[in-house]
């Protein structure tokens, strides 16, 4: 109970206090001059403690489109409760079209439209109004929004946006068959009045078609409209608004309707008999005439198939359909002959290829006509009795022998005689001749079957009355063989037999060849010649199939005793007269293994059993040569290494002091002999010019006898001493040769010149006196040279 009382109190406060104001719709504005009928009251401000009853009512303004009056069109009025009529309130207008389309009187709040409006361009305008104190420029109340709606008038006619239309409907369609649906669009307001309510009607095209007034669907109005009678229809459709009432606006469009073809007509021949004339010389497959059946249908419905009805002469002709003209083309299947038959008669049937089952009840969709063909006589060339003549003649037949004859006739009325001659392009060598009147063929040359077994040439027959009319036939002459050549053994003429062969062993199969005929047409026999049949080592076994085998008659053959046997074989043929020949076969005795494989017979047979080819033998020989080269190179390297061990290299840094009991040129003789000869006695030195002295006269080098290998060093030194004794250029003093490096631990260190100073002038040799008496001679020698040094003379 308490809750219900509280809720009632709350609702009374809200409504009575002005917080919620119910909408009071204002009646729609008309063109009346009373402006107070369309007024919007704006709420004024009241004291906080005073109950205020809102004095404005929200509603829409309406303005007529396409207003053409001279004065601005009055729309409505704005009014605030705070406006006491004292001129202290200013009304303002903002939003769509404010100032450009709509204006407001700032004092009275009257709203006017200053230009004509189009609802189809803009159906309504949203504006905002406000009352402002003129003095303070402050709003007296919040801004209010309202709408000015453009009221529609019927100023647009219906339009067919997709017109003109093109449609089709099959011919012979029933009443009410759907054709097309059209649609018109009216830009007026469909929610206001009947300005946009469209009604369809046909102005032109009745009574063939009808249209639904509301949906615009076009249908057929007559049954069995025939395309062959009329194919194109033009229908004028009208769309009118205002529900079709008087005063409504209307639009029109054109619908072009085509009746499509159906196969409702059979083909028909325009006449029942067709006459054709054909020359008897017409070639097979040629077109001899055309007939046509007429079908008023179109496209594939007019396609016609022609057939010859079996009957008289129908098997000599054929008929096909010309796809472009739908004509029946009659062609010749077999040759015509005026002398045999002069006329032919048969029937031709024409029928549709594509049938429509809906029209079967109308009757058969085919027609028949009679074709009569007359054969025209044409003068023709002579005709041979055979298409090909085959003749035979023996080779070496005497010249002028008749071997056959040809016959040709003129079958035309009033036949002419025929003359024969050979086409020399096919018998250029003139092996044969022909009688021009009788047609007999005779030889003109001796024929050789082994040279040419068959001749092929042509004979031409022409009319005497008209030589241009001629015909040709082929002549085939086979040259028969005369047995004139004896048979001969086919290769091989040589064979081999193993030393261990057994009696009765076949060592070779032989066959024969005859130049007279092929072996298939001959029978050959084989036997030994009479002189070889006495105690033969071999015999011939005839297999009776044009082959024979060479058979052994001994138990083993000795190659050392006889290496080659000659076996005469006699071969005879079976022709008449019998021809025979004796052919000698060579049989070589070879060494074989137990399986009968030849091991050695000749150079080729040696390698044949082991299966070595020429390439393999070459490879083996190359390998042997390479191995020999490696061995020779190895031996040479070993000898060179041994020689290097005997000779001391130039890089050997050891000192060598050579002493021999030879009264020479003194200690300064350092070039008396080559120390290398002592190190390797095998070295043979040529004569060299002394390097320590310059000889007075140039003499020829001495020819030194070669030093024997492995001689004793003593013998070599003695030999060199003898050479120096006889040498006039040798100095009479001994020489001391010092080489290389004395060795680690020596007091003198290294005597090599590698570490010497750049010039001898910078070298001090006084230290040689400290080395003892063994180096006294060197100290005196270098000290003397230093004392005579001209660079040190002051």
UniProtKB/TrEMBL annotation:
Entry-linked Gene3D superfamilies: Cadherins, TCF3-CBD (Catenin binding domain)
Predominant localisation class: membrane
GO biological process, one term: cell morphogenesis
Alphabetical list of PROSITE patterns matching this protein: CADHERIN_1, CADHERIN_2
Keyword Transport: no
GO cellular component: adherens junction; catenin complex
MF annotations from Gene Ontology: beta-catenin binding; cadherin binding; calcium ion binding
Superkingdom field: Eukaryota
Subcellular location: Cell membrane
Membrane topology: Single-pass type I membrane protein
Domain Cadherin residue range list: 80-160, 161-269, 270-384, 385-489, 489-607
UniProt keyword annotations, A-Z: Calcium, Cell adhesion, Cell membrane, Cleavage on pair of basic residues, Glycoprotein, Membrane, Metal-binding, Phosphoprotein, Repeat, Signal, Transmembrane, Transmembrane helix
Coiled-coil residue spans: none
Signal peptide: 1-25
TM regions (residue ranges): 606-637
PANTHER family the UniProt entry points to: CADHERIN-12, CADHERIN-23
Biological role stated in the UniProt entry: Cadherins are calcium-dependent cell adhesion proteins. They preferentially interact with themselves in a homophilic manner in connecting cells; cadherins may thus contribute to the sorting of heterogeneous cell types.
Name of the protein in question: Cadherin-12
Protein's organism: Zalophus californianus
